[in-house]
Amino acid sequence: MHGLINRAIQAFVTSTYGADRWYEIMDVAGLGFRQFEAMLTYTDDQSNKMLSAMETVLERPLPEMLEDMGTFLVSNPQVEALRRLLRFGGVNYVEFLHSLDDLPGRARLAVSDLYLPGLELLEQSPGHFELVCQPGLPGYSNVMMGVLRAMADDYGDLVILDSSGAQDGAEVISITLVEREFAEGRAFDLGAHSL
Q: Coiled-coil region(s) at which residues (predicted)?
Protein backbone atom coordinates (compact mmCIF):
# COMPACT_ATOMS: atom_id res chain seq x y z
CA MET A 1 0.00 0.00 0.00
CA HIS A 2 1.27 3.47 -0.79
CA GLY A 3 2.75 5.27 2.19
CA LEU A 4 0.53 8.27 1.54
CA ILE A 5 -2.51 6.14 2.36
CA ASN A 6 -0.93 4.71 5.51
CA ARG A 7 0.19 8.20 6.48
CA ALA A 8 -3.41 9.43 6.08
CA ILE A 9 -4.58 6.67 8.43
CA GLN A 10 -1.86 7.70 10.88
CA ALA A 11 -2.98 11.36 10.70
CA PHE A 12 -6.60 10.35 11.29
CA VAL A 13 -5.80 8.19 14.31
CA THR A 14 -3.37 10.71 15.82
CA SER A 15 -5.80 13.60 15.36
CA THR A 16 -8.84 11.68 16.59
CA TYR A 17 -7.43 9.42 19.33
CA GLY A 18 -4.02 10.93 20.14
CA ALA A 19 -0.39 10.06 19.42
CA ASP A 20 -0.17 7.62 22.34
CA ARG A 21 -2.95 5.47 20.85
CA TRP A 22 -1.17 5.52 17.49
CA TYR A 23 2.08 4.32 19.08
CA GLU A 24 0.14 1.58 20.86
CA ILE A 25 -1.35 0.48 17.53
CA MET A 26 2.07 0.34 15.91
CA ASP A 27 3.51 -1.59 18.86
CA VAL A 28 0.70 -4.15 18.62
CA ALA A 29 1.21 -4.37 14.83
CA GLY A 30 4.85 -5.31 15.52
CA LEU A 31 6.26 -3.72 12.38
CA GLY A 32 9.43 -2.42 14.03
CA PHE A 33 8.64 1.24 13.37
CA ARG A 34 6.05 3.76 14.53
CA GLN A 35 5.75 6.21 11.63
CA PHE A 36 4.85 5.69 7.98
CA GLU A 37 6.72 7.65 5.33
CA ALA A 38 4.39 9.22 2.78
CA MET A 39 6.48 8.51 -0.30
CA LEU A 40 7.42 4.87 0.44
CA THR A 41 5.48 1.76 -0.48
CA TYR A 42 4.56 -0.81 2.17
CA THR A 43 3.60 -4.43 1.72
CA ASP A 44 -0.05 -5.45 2.02
CA ASP A 45 0.98 -7.54 5.03
CA GLN A 46 2.40 -4.49 6.84
CA SER A 47 -0.70 -2.41 6.09
CA ASN A 48 -3.07 -5.22 7.09
CA LYS A 49 -1.23 -5.72 10.40
CA MET A 50 -1.59 -2.01 11.12
CA LEU A 51 -5.33 -2.08 10.29
CA SER A 52 -5.89 -5.16 12.41
CA ALA A 53 -4.03 -3.59 15.34
CA MET A 54 -6.09 -0.43 14.91
CA GLU A 55 -9.31 -2.42 15.31
CA THR A 56 -7.93 -4.25 18.36
CA VAL A 57 -6.50 -1.24 20.19
CA LEU A 58 -9.34 1.20 19.50
CA GLU A 59 -12.02 -1.47 20.04
CA ARG A 60 -14.15 -0.26 17.14
CA PRO A 61 -15.12 -2.06 13.93
CA LEU A 62 -12.66 -1.27 11.15
CA PRO A 63 -15.33 -0.39 8.54
CA GLU A 64 -16.78 2.20 10.93
CA MET A 65 -13.36 3.77 11.57
CA LEU A 66 -12.51 3.85 7.87
CA GLU A 67 -15.77 5.67 7.16
CA ASP A 68 -14.84 8.19 9.86
CA MET A 69 -11.45 8.52 8.18
CA GLY A 70 -13.15 9.36 4.88
CA THR A 71 -15.03 12.15 6.65
CA PHE A 72 -11.79 13.31 8.27
CA LEU A 73 -10.06 13.49 4.87
CA VAL A 74 -12.63 16.01 3.63
CA SER A 75 -13.46 18.00 6.75
CA ASN A 76 -10.17 18.32 8.65
CA PRO A 77 -8.12 21.46 7.91
CA GLN A 78 -4.92 19.36 8.05
CA VAL A 79 -5.84 17.79 4.72
CA GLU A 80 -7.43 20.76 2.94
CA ALA A 81 -5.60 19.86 -0.29
CA LEU A 82 -7.71 16.72 -0.72
CA ARG A 83 -10.93 18.66 -0.21
CA ARG A 84 -9.76 21.09 -2.90
CA LEU A 85 -8.99 18.22 -5.27
CA LEU A 86 -12.48 16.83 -4.74
CA ARG A 87 -14.23 20.20 -5.05
CA PHE A 88 -12.66 20.72 -8.46
CA GLY A 89 -14.95 17.88 -9.55
CA GLY A 90 -17.99 20.12 -9.82
CA VAL A 91 -19.91 23.17 -8.68
CA ASN A 92 -22.61 20.99 -7.09
CA TYR A 93 -22.86 17.55 -5.51
CA VAL A 94 -24.24 15.81 -8.60
CA GLU A 95 -21.39 17.15 -10.75
CA PHE A 96 -18.98 16.01 -8.05
CA LEU A 97 -20.50 12.51 -8.18
CA HIS A 98 -20.09 12.38 -11.96
CA SER A 99 -16.43 13.37 -11.58
CA LEU A 100 -15.64 10.37 -9.34
CA ASP A 101 -14.91 8.16 -12.37
CA ASP A 102 -11.84 10.36 -12.93
CA LEU A 103 -10.66 10.42 -9.30
CA PRO A 104 -8.03 7.65 -9.60
CA GLY A 105 -6.52 9.45 -12.61
CA ARG A 106 -6.51 12.81 -10.83
CA ALA A 107 -4.82 11.18 -7.84
CA ARG A 108 -2.11 9.83 -10.17
CA LEU A 109 -1.58 13.31 -11.60
CA ALA A 110 -0.87 14.52 -8.07
CA VAL A 111 1.21 11.46 -7.03
CA SER A 112 2.36 9.42 -10.01
CA ASP A 113 2.76 6.09 -8.18
CA LEU A 114 -0.53 6.29 -6.23
CA TYR A 115 -2.97 3.78 -7.69
CA LEU A 116 -6.53 3.93 -6.40
CA PRO A 117 -9.08 1.32 -7.49
CA GLY A 118 -11.50 2.40 -10.17
CA LEU A 119 -14.81 4.07 -9.42
CA GLU A 120 -17.89 3.96 -11.65
CA LEU A 121 -20.99 6.05 -11.07
CA LEU A 122 -24.28 4.64 -12.32
CA GLU A 123 -27.33 6.94 -12.40
CA GLN A 124 -30.32 4.71 -11.67
CA SER A 125 -32.91 7.51 -11.81
CA PRO A 126 -32.91 11.26 -11.13
CA GLY A 127 -31.37 11.74 -7.69
CA HIS A 128 -30.51 8.06 -7.22
CA PHE A 129 -27.02 6.74 -7.99
CA GLU A 130 -24.81 3.75 -7.34
CA LEU A 131 -21.07 4.09 -6.93
CA VAL A 132 -19.18 0.93 -7.83
CA CYS A 133 -15.86 0.74 -5.95
CA GLN A 134 -13.51 -1.74 -7.62
CA PRO A 135 -11.48 -4.08 -5.38
CA GLY A 136 -7.80 -3.55 -4.68
CA LEU A 137 -7.60 -1.49 -1.49
CA PRO A 138 -8.90 -2.81 1.86
CA GLY A 139 -11.78 -0.70 3.15
CA TYR A 140 -11.91 1.52 0.04
CA SER A 141 -15.71 1.59 -0.10
CA ASN A 142 -15.88 2.46 3.62
CA VAL A 143 -13.54 5.41 3.14
CA MET A 144 -15.54 6.49 0.07
CA MET A 145 -18.75 6.35 2.12
CA GLY A 146 -17.24 8.86 4.56
CA VAL A 147 -15.96 11.02 1.70
CA LEU A 148 -19.41 11.04 0.05
CA ARG A 149 -21.12 11.97 3.32
CA ALA A 150 -18.65 14.78 4.08
CA MET A 151 -18.80 16.14 0.53
CA ALA A 152 -22.61 16.26 0.70
CA ASP A 153 -22.24 18.38 3.85
CA ASP A 154 -19.58 20.46 2.10
CA TYR A 155 -22.03 21.26 -0.72
CA GLY A 156 -24.95 21.67 1.71
CA ASP A 157 -26.97 18.77 0.24
CA LEU A 158 -28.90 16.11 2.15
CA VAL A 159 -28.15 12.56 1.01
CA ILE A 160 -28.86 9.02 2.16
CA LEU A 161 -25.98 6.57 1.69
CA ASP A 162 -26.17 2.82 2.01
CA SER A 163 -23.79 -0.02 1.33
CA SER A 164 -25.48 -2.17 -1.31
CA GLY A 165 -23.04 -5.06 -0.88
CA ALA A 166 -20.77 -6.71 -3.41
CA GLN A 167 -21.25 -7.01 -7.16
CA ASP A 168 -18.69 -9.05 -9.12
CA GLY A 169 -16.05 -8.43 -6.42
CA ALA A 170 -16.73 -4.69 -6.29
CA GLU A 171 -18.46 -2.89 -3.41
CA VAL A 172 -21.51 -0.79 -4.28
CA ILE A 173 -22.65 2.34 -2.46
CA SER A 174 -26.23 3.51 -3.00
CA ILE A 175 -26.61 7.32 -3.03
CA THR A 176 -29.98 9.07 -2.80
CA LEU A 177 -30.01 12.85 -3.12
CA VAL A 178 -32.89 13.87 -0.85
CA GLU A 179 -32.60 17.65 -1.05
CA ARG A 180 -30.23 20.07 -2.73
CA GLU A 181 -29.13 23.13 -0.77
CA PHE A 182 -30.57 21.62 2.41
CA ALA A 183 -28.07 23.65 4.45
CA GLU A 184 -25.44 26.24 3.76
CA GLY A 185 -22.37 24.58 2.26
CA ARG A 186 -18.77 25.43 3.09
CA ALA A 187 -17.15 28.26 1.19
CA PHE A 188 -14.87 27.29 -1.67
CA ASP A 189 -12.70 29.44 -3.93
CA LEU A 190 -10.90 28.16 -7.02
CA GLY A 191 -7.73 30.04 -6.14
CA ALA A 192 -5.77 28.91 -3.10
CA HIS A 193 -5.05 31.67 -0.60
CA SER A 194 -1.83 31.94 1.30
CA LEU A 195 -1.40 33.77 4.57
A: none
Looking at the 3D structure of the chain, how many domains does it have? 2
C-alpha distance from residue 109 to each of 41, 97, 112 (Å): 18, 19, 6
Whether residue 41 is contained in a domain is answered as yes
Q: pTM higher than 0.85 for the full model?
A: yes
Same domain, 56 and 75: no
Domain span including residue 147: 68-179
pLDDT 10s digits, 140-193: 999 999 999 999 999 999 999 999 878 888 999 999 999 766 555 555 555 555
Nearest to 13 by CA among 43, 57, 77: 57
- Give a yes or no: residue 143 inside a domain: yes
3-state secondary structure of 128: strand
